[in-house]
């Protein structure tokens, strides 16, 4: 080979074939140790044979954008291709690399043959002094792995086709040899790695060729029997172990081979020290090409200590569970046993309080009731804490009105706050959703705990409860609650202690104020269960602010009661209260109604505001007046306003911090249209204003004064039918006596059997059912009552029990009861239940007249005997109260679809039984309901009710 004038044509001569054969023979026998030396010798032979200046081999790195010279050769006097072996960027020669990837070779006879785009390649080869070159790609398993470069630096070369073919054949030896070396190194690394893992594994590993023959084993398996690895490999069990051990192992191996699939088994066997050890053996068959088991690979772990620990743990678990059950039973029994006498204490104290007592005796009663309430609170805290501790306290997910829940929690503490002269107010900010899904009772419990503490630790000043909407997170509304007081505060060093169980900030606090120290710990856990956290900021002597967040699902589409305030024009409302916060709250509740709001801090300011606007467009229409003010009280202000010509027509609404029985009558006498307790409830306030403005019909019973949620004076006309099922004489006596104070009576059954008989013979409005009784308990009795009634009727049954543990409420509901009241009985709740479930007996007196007035029509129209006709009318009369009640509720709720259905039912039954007077009115009522004429429906329904009087 030489210049273009002196080129040599290379054919497959004997020398050429010999070179190819020697190269292949040499490279095929290489190992990783002498690979580089022999490779360089081969490159030298090839270079000398073809009269080349240098040869080099490049391989691509793991990152194919880099490459590195693995081996090179150059003539004496010619500089090497690279002085050092280091990674180079592939795309410094972009044209050449593209050609290598897409062609079997790249041959350049002289640099003038480079295309225009090969600017980087020309620059590189000129710099190195290259005159001509041939590049042969290297491939392994059809993948490009590198290339061989053959270069001439002294002359141009005319690369012949045969010459290129020979060099391509030789280059295949390079890629094959390197691939073989890499695989050997990889295999060696795997083998060495496996050996390291096997021999250092704490687990025993071995392989069997048959039931009694080892193939190999690791050091851990050999060590277990006090032997070396070499003692076991390719040996028979019976040549290694004693007969007992060999038999055990061979029997175990037989089962594993027979299974013919991955398996697991426990085997107790002696180690080299003669100790019985429990091995957990896992096996996996290794199969040959025909699917037969070639080896059985086994692994084993010594689980002796683990199993002993599990046994001990199981025993401990059983003991703990037994202790937990015993604890739960003890708590349940304790709750029942304590609550039963507590019910007697509360009941008799309340009865005693209603008798004629001296001031000193009344004070004694008050203290006794207070002490009893503290004891009951302690019992409830301990029960709740035990549920949390046992992980058995669960959260309900039910829909509820958030505003009502907050306001109910606050209202419960109003009397105690009023007794101490504390101002208690609630601010529910705009954006707080009305209807949510969650656990209302637990939310109320958190608020009760925080507000109760605020009242307890505050001597004077005020307590505020604020609710705010912070936004949405993962589809849940994040709600923030804040309870702020002006009480004794907490020392900075004690703030971290207060949420711990049985701990209060200061031990002296317990002695002075009482309490278990559980309330805040329970509240903290409940808040966590609701997806939030509780925090506190406090300054000693100045007060505390407790703040917590909860996450609740919002009920979409829920709406509050709306009144058409926007239709009214020129309605101006004056809020009179010496407390700035209370004025702001009332004003905020009236936002969005269209009213213009004025505020006055006392009676004098109120009168000035009213008079100054008397003859203007700002004339006051309604005044909302706080009872207690510094210059004169609400009654005195009302009397003053009624004597003035410009103010006597103003509608007055009274706000009072603490309501008493009879206050409604007194408020009415002083000219108030409505009477509400504080903290003010927005819905009650809007409802009162709606009635005052004629946007809402008021019940006849409400007359002109509306008092909601705080004072519910039992109506004298209420004559409920009550059955008390109670085996405890003391409890029965208390309930009967309390009912007498409200002019009520009840029947008494001492067990479930008597109750079942009583319900089957008489129609009761409500049954108060004790759960634990002899002969037949309350659960069984309720189930039998429901079976007896079927679909014909549904008697309201309220569980009245001293049990207050987890699942008691669910058990009551599952048995068919409608509600649950725990002992000691809260008689306000009991009377609310009675009032809510008592049928309107006002109609009963007119029922006999209804039968007498219509029976002859039925006899004439059907030809029935008088007794049969009377029996039909009596059945009709029995179901009539519920039907009329449903009609009234439909009218009140503007549910015209339901009203049409119920009125149609009334029309049909009345027409069939020839009760003409009701039938005619029912026809008209159905027509009015279809047209959605509310006022006409009310008028017609009043006419129907008048038929019974």
From TrEMBL:
Protein name per its UniProtKB record: Circadian input-output histidine kinase CikA
Top-level EC class as recorded in UniProt: transferase
Organism expressing this protein natively: Clostridium thailandense
GO molecular function, one term: phosphorelay sensor kinase activity
One Pfam family here: Response_reg
CDD domains on file: HATPase_EvgS-ArcB-TorS-like (cd16922), HisKA (cd00082), REC_hyHK_CKI1_RcsC-like (cd17546)
Reactions catalysed: ATP + protein L-histidine = ADP + protein N-phospho-L-histidine
Subunit structure: At low DSF concentrations, interacts with RpfF.
Modification Phosphohistidine, positions: 904
Record domain Response regulatory: where: 572-693, 721-838
Chain positions found as 4-aspartylphosphate: 626, 770
Keywords: ATP-binding, Kinase, Nucleotide-binding, Phosphoprotein, Transferase, Two-component regulatory system
Domain HPt: from-to ranges: 865-949
């Amino acid at each position: 080979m030489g210049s273009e004038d002196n080129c040599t044509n290379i054919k497959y001569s004997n020398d050429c074939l010999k070179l190819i054969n020697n190269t292949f023979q040499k490279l095929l026998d290489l190992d990783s140790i002498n690979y580089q030396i022999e490779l360089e010798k081969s490159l030298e032979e090839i270079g000398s044979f073809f009269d080349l200046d240098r040869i080099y081999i490049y391989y691509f790195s793991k990152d194919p954008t880099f490459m590195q010279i693995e081996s090179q050769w150059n003539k004496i006097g010619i500089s090497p291709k690279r002085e050092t072996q280091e990674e180079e960027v592939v795309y410094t020669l972009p044209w050449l690399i593209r050609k290598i990837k897409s062609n079997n070779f790249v041959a350049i006879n002289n640099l003038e043959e480079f295309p225009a785009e090969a600017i980087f390649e020309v620059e590189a080869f000129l710099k190195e002094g290259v005159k001509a070159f041939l590049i042969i790609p290297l491939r392994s398993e059809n993948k490009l792995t590198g290339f061989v470069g053959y270069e001439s630096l002294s002359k141009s070369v005319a690369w012949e086709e045969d010459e290129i073919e020979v060099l391509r054949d030789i280059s295949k030896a390079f890629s094959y040899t390197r691939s073989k070396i890499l695989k050997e190194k990889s295999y060696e690394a795997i083998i060495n790695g496996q050996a390291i893992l096997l021999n250092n594994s704490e687990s025993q590993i071995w392989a069997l060729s048959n039931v009694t023959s080892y193939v190999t084993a690791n050091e851990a398996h050999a060590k277990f029997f006090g032997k070396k690895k070499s003692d076991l490999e390719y040996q028979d069990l019976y040549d290694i172990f004693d007969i007992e051990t060999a038999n055990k192992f061979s029997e175990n191996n037989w089962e594993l081979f027979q299974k013919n699939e991955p398996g697991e088994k426990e085997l107790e066997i002696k180690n080299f020290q003669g100790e019985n050890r429990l091995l957990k053996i896992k096996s996996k068959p290794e199969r040959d090409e025909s699917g037969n088991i070639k080896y059985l690979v086994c692994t084993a772990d010594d689980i002796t200590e683990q199993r002993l620990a599990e046994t001990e743990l199981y025993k401990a678990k059983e003991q703990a569970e037994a202790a937990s059950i015993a604890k739960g039973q003890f708590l349940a029994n304790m709750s029942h046993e304590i609550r039963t006498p507590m019910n007697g204490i509360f009941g008799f104290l309340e009865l005693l309080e209603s008798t004629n007592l001296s001031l000193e005796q009344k004070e004694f009663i008050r203290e006794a009731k207070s002490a009893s309430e503290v004891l009951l609170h302690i019992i409830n805290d301990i029960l709740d804490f035990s549920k949390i501790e046992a992980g058995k306290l669960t959260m309900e997910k039910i829909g509820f009105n958030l505003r009502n829940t907050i306001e109910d929690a606050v209202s419960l503490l109003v009397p105690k706050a009023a007794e101490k002269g504390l101002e208690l107010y609630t601010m529910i900010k705009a954006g707080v959703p009305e209807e949510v899904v969650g656990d209302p009772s637990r939310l109320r419990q958190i608020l009760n705990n925080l507000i109760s503490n605020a009242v307890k630790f505050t001597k004077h000043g005020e307590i505020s409860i604020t609710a705010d909407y912070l936004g949405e997170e993962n589809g849940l509304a994040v709600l923030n609650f804040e309870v702020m007081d002006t009480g004794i505060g907490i020392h900075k060093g004690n703030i971290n202690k207060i949420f711990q169980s049985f701990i209060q900030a200061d031990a002296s606090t317990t002695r002075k104020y009482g309490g278990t120290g559980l309330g805040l710990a329970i509240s903290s856990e409940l808040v966590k269960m609701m997806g939030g956290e509780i925090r506190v900021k406090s300054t000693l002597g100045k007060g505390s602010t407790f703040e917590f967040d909860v996450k609740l699902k919002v009920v979409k589409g829920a709406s509050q009661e709306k009144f058409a305030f926007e239709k009214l024009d020129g309605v101006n409302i004056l809020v009179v209260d010496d407390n700035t916060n209370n004025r702001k709250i009332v004003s905020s509740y009236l936002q969005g109604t269209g009213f213009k709001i004025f505020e006055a801090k006392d009676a004098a300011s109120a009168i000035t505001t009213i008079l100054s606007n008397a003859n203007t467009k700002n004339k006051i229409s309604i005044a909302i007046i706080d009872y207690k003010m510094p210059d004169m009280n609400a009654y005195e202000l009302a009397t003053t306003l009624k004597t003035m010509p410009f103010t006597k027509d103003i509608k007055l609404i009274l706000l009072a911090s603490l309501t008493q029985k009879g206050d409604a009558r007194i408020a009415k006498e002083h000219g108030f249209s409505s009477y509400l307790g504080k903290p003010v409830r927005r819905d009650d306030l809007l409802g009162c204003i709606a009635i005052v403005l004629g946007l809402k019909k008021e019940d006849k019973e409400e007359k002109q004064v509306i008092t909601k949620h705080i004072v519910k004076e039992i109506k004298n006309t209420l004559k409920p039918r009550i059955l008390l099922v109670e085996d405890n004489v003391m409890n029965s006596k208390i309930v009967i006596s309390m009912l007498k104070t409200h002019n009520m009576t009840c029947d008494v059954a001492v067990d479930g059997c008597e109750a079942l008989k009583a319900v089957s013979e008489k129609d009761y409005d409500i049954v108060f059912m004790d759960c634990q009784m002899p002969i037949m308990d309350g659960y069984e009795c309720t189930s039998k009552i429901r079976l007896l009634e079927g679909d014909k009727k549904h008697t309201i049954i309220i569980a009245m029990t001293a049990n207050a543990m987890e699942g008691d409420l669910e058990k009551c509901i599952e048995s068919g009861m409608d509600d649950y009241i725990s002992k000691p009985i809260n008689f306000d709740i009991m009377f609310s239940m009675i009032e809510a479930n008592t049928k309107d007996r006002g109609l009963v007196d007119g029922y006999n007249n209804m039968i007498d007035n219509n029976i002859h029509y039925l006899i004439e129209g059907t030809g029935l005997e008088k007794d049969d006709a009377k029996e039909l009318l009596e059945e009709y009369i029995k179901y009539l109260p519920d039907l009329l009640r449903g009609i009234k509720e439909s009218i009140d709720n503007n549910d015209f679809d339901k009203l049409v259905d119920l009125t149609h039912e009334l029309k049909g039954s009345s027409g069939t039984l020839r009760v003409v007077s009701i039938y005619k009115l029912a026809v008209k009522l159905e027509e009015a309901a279809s047209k959605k004429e509310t006022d006409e429906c009310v008028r017609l329904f009043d006419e129907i009710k008048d038929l019974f009087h």
